[in-house]
Structures are given as structure tokens and as C-alpha cells.
Amino acid sequence: MKTNFKLAEGFVVAMLMGGFSAAVAQPVLTVSPAVTSNTYPGVITLGITGLTNHETVTVQEWLDLNANGVIDAGEPMMDAGKITDNDPSKAIIGGVTNINVPIDSNSATGAITATLNFAPPAVLENVIGQRIFKLVSPTGNFSPVTATLLVTNAVTAQTLSGTVYSNGVTPLPHAVVVVLPPGGKGYTAAEVADNSGHYSINVNPGSYVVMAAVPDYFIDQSLAPQVTLTNGQSATNDLSMTNGTVTVSGNFYDAGNSNALGGVMLQVQSGPLFEISFTDTNGNYSAAVTPNFWQIGPNTERLPRRGYVAPQQSLQVDATGGDVTNANVGLPKGNALFYGHIVDNLSHPFANIEFDSSDVNNGSYDAKGYSDPNGNYSAVALADGTNQWNCNPNNEANISLAGYVLNNSENTNIAVSQAIEQDFVALPVNAQISGQVRDNSGNPVVGVSLYAGTINNNGNGYVSLNSQTDMNGNYSMGVATSAGAWSVNFSYGDQNDLPHQGLVDLYGPYPVTIPPTNAVQNIIVYPYGSSAMTRPQRFGSQQFSINVVGSVGVSYTLQVSTNLASTNWTPLYTFQLTNSPMPVTDFSATNTPRFYRLLKN
User: Fold this and answer.
1) What whole-number distance in Å separates Cα of residue 153 and Cα of residue 141?
2) Which residues share a beta bridge with 435?
3) pLDDT of residue 21
4) pTM
């Protein structure tokens, strides 16, 4: 019996030793800093050790709504992506590294060091609360491991607080409350509400819009509180969300290889109604909404880490008759790259600046990118060899650029696997252009956007921040005297442009002389379809050229007179407008004064 016991004991020990030697060692995941304020301007560093050489891992980022350190059912995966030990190839386009995509910067084998953007304008990345980073082996080489990141509330003298309610009645626990700049463009801060739906976010003095977001609930953005806080001031605003009664579901996938895209943040919108959702590990999503027409698209600010471009037009679905399924969206991978750096006139770099990369020919796709602490940036594009793209800083999303004007890049052809360098120099604002916009009846034009642009001696076009007219039609924009001559232009392409008010600018752009450093340019606009002509320009001893604007296909007569006191006007041309504006030339001009008028036949 004793001998048998020894044999059995030896067999057990051998089995244990054999089992131990055959087991795969678990890697270690660290997050640095593990605790930080939501105003931290740096990056989050992931450290991974204990891997095999050139091993590929998946890093998932989860929002730990109840802060218990465990990924519970219903908690959203905010992001996901693969990183390979000592292999940066997936982030390289045209020989240049896309700095938005996390790669291994650790030269040691079996270890990965990667950094993630944290500061705004990356949406929700600095949300106050706890998130969990989960390390997964795509091949099952090891069991998942996790590490937490706790984001604390900044210490400021101003606070936005309140309670989030479900349908205006029941407190809604763990909703995400988001603070945005006025107009809802850009991103400032966010917080996960507590178990009672209460939130309290410390902010700097300024004007803000406060909204709540949680999957399967929507909010009416038109009712979102707009708050202005001065030094030491606080404001309390309760928020109400409505739970949906029908669902829209589908899948997000890589358009090139059909692989599922997990952890994609989605924006679900119907007019002023707004909701967020996230795809799961298989790329599937489901959003509870009200019966209506809805648009579904990815949040483009969260796509740069993956290197994808997003459709400029969101997928529209009809949920008026009930549930919608198979609302699937494929996202193409960027295959070209813009890169460069952004500094001020003293070569100081700007960090965390959002860049917009856009398809200007077809208006099909766009992408985002961000600058690092050294002012280096990159943003992908989707090239086919013939299309044109441009890439510029997003002035409306970058608060740190508020006191500057920047050069504006031109549209350019971009080819597959091409990397185009475009650098930006921000000039401090030291002058103002202001004025009033009125229609031809003298009424102020409210809520239209304008900007000032120029070309300096180096051929770099500079552009001011957009300015929107107030209730009296007044506008004001900052410019820089060192950039050269400026002109005022209307901005087009959104709901704040002239066409949305049935108006047209017939005489812009408007040259402005600076100095003086406070120049005034008043502007009169006209109802769409109005007829007018520009100021005559001399192009020779006997030639004046005039641009006629009006309705295409309509007949006009241009008349001339040499004396405004006379009632006699001589017809110069009768013509049909084939395009607007259309140039018309007077070949009989002399040294005597000549006056022109345009009649609609």
C-alpha cells in the first residue's frame, strides 16, 4: 500500500508538472495613468507583456457604467482594435504612419506599448466614470485579461448638474450626460450618471448645451438646455429621455473583407430626436426608437483609431410600420493619407486638434484625424485615382484655435497608397471685421454663417472662424493683419446658409482693407431669383465688362446712358441668361461717364 501510494503520488506530481509546463502564461495588461482627471491633456498608454513574438491581440474598451470593475450585460463596448507585437504595417500608408491608429512602439519582443488619444474633441473618450480595457486573443492563445481606467471630475468653480429621467418620471441610472459647445458642434465633456440618475460635471466658464445619451432611449435635442456660466456660477438642469417602442437593428462591417466591426459608436437621428448605440463584438446593433424615419451612421470622431472613412450620407430607414432589420452598413478602410503638423507663428505645436478629410468631388465619404502633443497629425482618405479630397482643421470643434486664423488647404487629387503632406500655421487674431447683413427691403438677416478668407504672399489661403449673424443681422470675425488682404464670404452647405432662407448673395465676395484693425463691411442680399449686375470693370480703353446675375433661361435687356439726369436709355444687348453670373461686355465705352441698368423682359 505504501509503495502504491508513492507511485500514485509521483504520477500526480508528474501530471501537475506536465500540466503546468504545457499551460500558456497569461499576459499582463497595464493602463497608465490608471486614474486621471477628465481635463488630462495627454495620452493613455497601454502596456502588454507576456506575449509570444509578433503575436496579435485585440484590445476592447468597455464603459463600466456601474463602476464595479466587471463587464456586465448591457454595458457598451466603446472601441475595439487589433495590435501586433513589433508590426506597425497596418498603420502605414505611402510610407507614412497614420498616428491615429494604435501600434506597438516597444522594440522588445513579446511586449506591446501603445498610446490612445484621450482629450477632446475625441467624443466620450474623457467621460467621467470608469471604463475597462479587455485584452483578448483572436486565436484563443490566452484567457482575456482586464485593467481599469478611472476618470475623475475636474476641479473647477463652475458646475452643471441635475437628474436624468426616463419619460420625465423615473430617474434613469447610468445615463451618459454630454456637454457640448453652443449649436451642438464639437464636444467638451461627459459623465456617467450615478444609480439615481444624478450628474454633476465641473466645467470652465462658457456657454454650453447639455444632453443625455443612453442606448434604447432618445432625446429631443431642440429641448436641450443651453447654459452660460460665469466665474463661480453653477446651473441645475434635469433631462428627460424617452424609451423607444420599435427597434432598428443591423450590422456594421469592413466593406473590404466583410469582417464585423465591434465597438462602433452609432448616431441614430430623426429630426431633433437623437440616440446613441454601440455595436457588439460581432458588429451587431439594436436601437429602440419611436415609429418614424431614422438615419443611422457611425460617429466619425471615434473612427480615426481604426483608419476607416465614413459615408457622408447616413443610412435612412423607415420605422413607421414597426421594427426594421438588416440595416447594415459597410465602412471602407482609408487607402490614402494626409499628414503634416500644425503650429502657431512662433512654431509652438497644437495638440488634440481635430482634422476633417473630405471627398469634395462626390461628397461620398469623409474622415477625421487628430494631432499629437508635438502638433503632428494624420487623416485617411479613400482614393480611386481620380477623386479630389481636402484636409483642414475643424475650426468649430477646436476651442484652442478660437484666437487664431489658419491657412486653408486646396482640393487635391489623391491616389491609392499616396501620402500628401499639408502643414498649417495658425496666426493670432489681431483685427476684427464686422458688419450687418440685411435684405433689399432693409430687414436684418438672422442666423446665416459668414467667414473671411485671403491669400497671403506665400500662396497660403487663410480662413477665419465662421461667424453667425445675430437677431439684428450683425456679425463679427477675427482676422490677422499679417495674412494679407481679406474678403468676406457667405458659408454654404448647412442649414445656416442663405439658400435655406430663400436668399442669394449677388455681389460677394467683399474685399476688406485692413488696417484699420476694426473694419466694417455691411452686406445686402436679395431674394432668390433676383436680377442684378456687378460693378463694371474696365478691360481696355473702350471695354467695360459686367457680370449679370438672375434667373437662367430668362431674357434680359442691358441698357446704357451717359447722363443719369436724362430719361433716355439706349438698349445695349438683349439676351437670354444661360448661366448665372454671365459676363457681358460693352465694346463702345469712351472716356465719358457711362451708366448701366438691367431690365427683366
Assistant:
1) 38
2) 475
3) 39
4) 0.82
